[in-house]
Design goal:
This protein has 401 residues and is of the alpha+beta class. It has eleven helices and 17 strands. Strand 1, helix 1 and strand 2 (34-40) form a beta-alpha-beta unit.
Length: 401
């Protein structure tokens, strides 16, 4: 019971140069119960040459046949899988030591969660660490749905029966299939963050994630609109500007050669980065350190009962005296509180039509301050209160950050 079988699937096509590193990172894991399947799309390079000795030694299952792309290969592997926990690792990426054990321990801690994810690194073509993956953070469903895929796919492990319930990988997607399936799982079951370094993504010029350009954004843009229900959600702006900044700056340099063109490209880049940062850091009204702005947006997975709202009213300034916080969901007021200084909690009645559903929640604060303006610190953010949590009183299979 404490050592479930874990199935790892590696979709591959003409990645013979990297795939041995991928295989070794899986087979060298310290967890004893791993089923490993390599689904090759009929590579014409030396992939079969590299993988065959492992297959002959019965250390993995190797299937090489034509497929309809990466998503199709992953689904084939998942349907074959015997494990109750499944994952996919691309044929140019790697697991870090202890990754599988960390994932299993995460599921033992939160057995009903949809997926586990952790920390990781960005590596170069030769496998040297470039940097830590900068976006990972504890589970935040609103940000995952509306703003950013902050989860490093190379650290994700799925509960197979949860995957079966929400549907397999969308085979029409080529760039955002991991984001798409994570949002589906998160809305229904929640996700669980494990603060352990588990995997690494290999970054190089012709890697799919970095060579997709406008085609990649077209797919991600459509995905964001579908999962958020908004035409121009913050994520649409984030990924759109991140993609077209490079295209526009390159065009400016070609049209205006020399120092003038370089200056114009740099200024254009600064403008794009300003709006990229705003779409990422300010759109939710919730900062990584828990401080909330005058308007804060949040989202909780499916659940029932009442909704518990917890926070802290910190005396940054007497200007926050008499603070009133109003909680709404889709324009319907669920409750309000005028907290004293210190921690507070409020139980909100959820109408019948909200029971068993994933909910958007908005908090409106009547007062806020900029700490740097009241001599409290050098913090120039406009802050209202410290947020702790929203959660259903009967969360069932969900886990709420």
């Amino acid at each position: 019971m404490n050592q479930p079988l874990v199935t790892i699937v590696t979709p591959s096509f003409n990645q013979g140069h990297f795939i041995q590193d991928t295989i070794e990172s899986v087979l060298s894991q310290d967890y004893p119960h791993i089923e490993y399947i390599v689904m090759d799309g009929g590579s014409s390079d030396n992939t079969a040459e590299v993988v065959r000795p492992y297959a002959e030694a019965k250390r993995l299952t190797f299937i090489s046949e034509k497929d309809r792309g990466q998503s199709d290969a992953i689904n084939k592997g998942f349907r074959m899988a015997q494990g109750s926990i499944v994952a996919w690792l691309n044929s140019d990426d790697i697991y870090l030591p202890g990754a599988v054990s960390a994932a299993v321990n995460g599921f033992l801690e939160k057995p009903q969660t949809g997926a586990i994810y952790g920390e990781g690194f960005q590596i170069d073509r030769e496998g040297k660490v470039k940097s830590k993956f900068p976006f990972t953070e504890p589970f935040n469903l609103w940000k995952l749905t509306y703003s950013l895929d902050y989860i490093l796919q190379q650290t994700v492990f799925f509960r197979r029966d949860a995957l079966h319930q929400v549907g397999w990988i969308d085979e029409s997607l080529h760039f955002g299939m991991d984001w798409d399936i994570l949002v589906k799982l998160a809305k229904r079951f929640g996700l669980h963050y494990v603060p352990v370094e588990m995997g690494a993504i290999r970054e190089y010029e012709d890697a799919k994630s970095f060579a997709g350009g406008a085609k990649r954004f077209a797919e991600l843009g459509a995905l964001i609109r579908r999962q958020s229900g908004q035409r121009f959600a913050p994520g649409y702006i984030f990924y759109g500007l991140d993609t077209y900044e490079k295209i526009w700056c390159s065009l400016v340099r070609r049209l205006v050669p020399g120092a003038l063109g370089e200056l114009a490209a740099r200024r254009l880049s600064h403008v794009c980065r300003y709006f990229i940062d705003r779409s990422y850091y300010l759109s939710q009204g919730l900062y990584r350190d828990g401080w909330a702005a005058e308007q804060m947006h949040f989202m909780i997975p499916e659940g029932r009962g009442k909704i518990l709202f917890r926070g802290e009213n910190i005396q940054l300034s007497d200007l926050l005296q008499g603070q009133i916080l109003i909680v709404e969901s889709n324009g319907l007021e669920l409750g309000r509180i005028q907290p004293g200084w210190g921690e507070f909690r409020l139980e909100l009645d959820a109408p019948l039509h909200m029971q068993g559903k994933c909910l958007n929640l908005d908090v409106f604060a009547s007062k806020s301050v900029v700490p740097s303006r009241v001599g409290n610190s050098f913090d120039s953010r406009r802050l209202a209160f410290r947020f702790i949590e929203f959660q259903w009183t009967e969360p069932g299979a969900t886990h709420i950050y």
